[in-house]
């Protein structure tokens, strides 16, 4: 029995959560998957799974073995792919996921420029603000404005920093006054990112300041907050890449400019089995170079 085929079957059982689900993924019979895993256990003289009538879970030994198998299979798959790609110009499909507004304003133009440089590469760009499971959903690259979660199956690289600034429409400031200190924000209608963003952490001349805020509107998208702020609804914390874009650059006024939100990092994440792919490597380097060159805050 092919050892790599057995290793692959084992990893599929772990990821799918059972033999039947793994068999469907592999398009083979359940008994074939079970046979491969049992043969692997016999060869290793170790139990890799706890089996019950309801579920299959990896043992501690199995979990440790899984992490090594993922890397071995990833190296094999990408080594083969890299050899094929090195025979000519990078080509094939790349599935990329990015946040909605950042993806529209920053990633989409760079993707277009990248494809002009490598015309044999096709890119499927999906924009959404929800958490994405890159492996389960089949993405080659995922871009997120957040600290990456540690994972044995994902690699991450920083792209740029995201700076947030306080801003409001002139019409709102005329009606309610311009805040002169962070403490004044407690008396304003603050437009928040998500229902839990009730505390704003600002960094100013005297260091970090935390302010409890409240308001009548919250959203999980920065552009939605920009629209509300431009309509005179209240004060928002927005990333600089939104403030730099039309029409917000003319409709919103930065307030308390000496106080900025702590910077957030933008990362590109990709499954470990993509780390040798020429086109993945090229796109990562392209994004890193151009976002860094633009001194992008987000």
Per-chain topology:
Elements: H1 3-16, H2 19-26, H3 30-44, E1 49-51, E2 56-58, H4 60-86, E3 92-98, H5 100-117, E4 121-127, E5 141-145, E6 154-162, E7 164-168, H6 170-176, E8 190-193, E9 199-204, E10 207-212, E11 218-219, H7 222-230, E12 235-239, H8 240-243, H9 248-251, E13 253-254, E14 260-261, E15 264-271, H10 278-293
Parallel strand pairs: 3-4, 3-5, 8-11, 8-12
Antiparallel strand pairs: 1-2, 5-15, 6-15, 7-12, 7-13, 9-10, 9-14
Helix pairs in contact: 1-2, 1-3, 1-4, 2-3, 5-10
Briefly say what this structure is.
The protein is of the alpha/beta class and 298 residues long. The chain has ten helices and 15 strands.
Features:
D-Maltodextrin-Binding Protein, domain 2; alpha/beta; 10 helices; five-stranded mixed sheet; 298 residues
Write a structural description:
There is one protein chain. The chain has ten helices and 15 strands. The radius of gyration is 24 Å and the shape is elongated. The model has no long low-confidence stretch (mean pLDDT 87). 32% of the residues are buried. By secondary structure, it is α/β, with parallel strands linked by helices. The strands form four sheets. The chain has a five-stranded mixed sheet with strand order 4-3-5-15-6, with helices on one face. It folds into three domains: 83 residues, Orthogonal Bundle (Arc Repressor Mutant, subunit A), CATH 1.10.10; 100 residues, D-Maltodextrin-Binding Protein, domain 2 (3-Layer(aba) Sandwich), CATH 3.40.190; 98 residues, D-Maltodextrin-Binding Protein, domain 2, CATH 3.40.190. The chain is 41% helix and 25% strand. A hairpin with a 4-residue loop joins strand 1 and strand 2.
């Amino acid at each position: 029995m092919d050892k790599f085929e057995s290793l692959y079957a084992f990893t599929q059982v772990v990821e799918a959560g059972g033999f039947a689900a793994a068999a469907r993924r592999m398009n083979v019979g359940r008994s074939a998957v079970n046979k491969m895993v049992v043969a692997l256990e016999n060869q290793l003289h170790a139990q890799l799974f706890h089996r019950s009538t309801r579920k299959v879970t990896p043992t501690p030994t199995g979990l440790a073995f899984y992490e090594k198998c993922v890397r071995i299979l990833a190296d094999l798959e990408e080594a083969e792919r890299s050899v094929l790609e090195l025979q000519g110009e990078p080509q094939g499909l790349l599935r990329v996921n990015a946040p909605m507004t950042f993806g529209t304003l920053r990633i989409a133009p760079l993707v277009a420029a990248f494809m002009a440089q490598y015309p044999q590469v096709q890119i499927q760009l999906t924009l959404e603000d929800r958490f994405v499971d890159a492996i389960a959903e089949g993405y080659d690259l995922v871009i997120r404005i957040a600290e990456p979660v540690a994972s044995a199956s994902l690699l991450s690289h920083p792209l740029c920093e995201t700076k947030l600034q306080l801003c409001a429409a002139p019409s709102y400031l005329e009606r309610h006054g311009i805040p002169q200190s962070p403490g004044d924000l407690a008396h304003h209608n603050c437009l928040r990112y998500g229902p839990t963003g009730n505390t704003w952490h600002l960094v100013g001349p005297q260091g970090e300041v935390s302010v409890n805020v409240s308001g009548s509107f919250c959203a999980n998208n920065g552009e939605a907050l920009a629209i509300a702020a431009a309509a005179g609804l209240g004060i928002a914390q927005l990333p600089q890449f939104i403030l730099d874009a039309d029409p917000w650059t003319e409709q919103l006024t930065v307030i308390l400019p000496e106080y900025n939100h702590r910077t957030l990092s933008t990362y590109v994440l990709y499954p470990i089995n993509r780390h040798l792919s020429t086109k993945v490597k090229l796109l990562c380097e392209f994004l890193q170079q151009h976002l860094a060159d633009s001194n992008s805050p987000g």
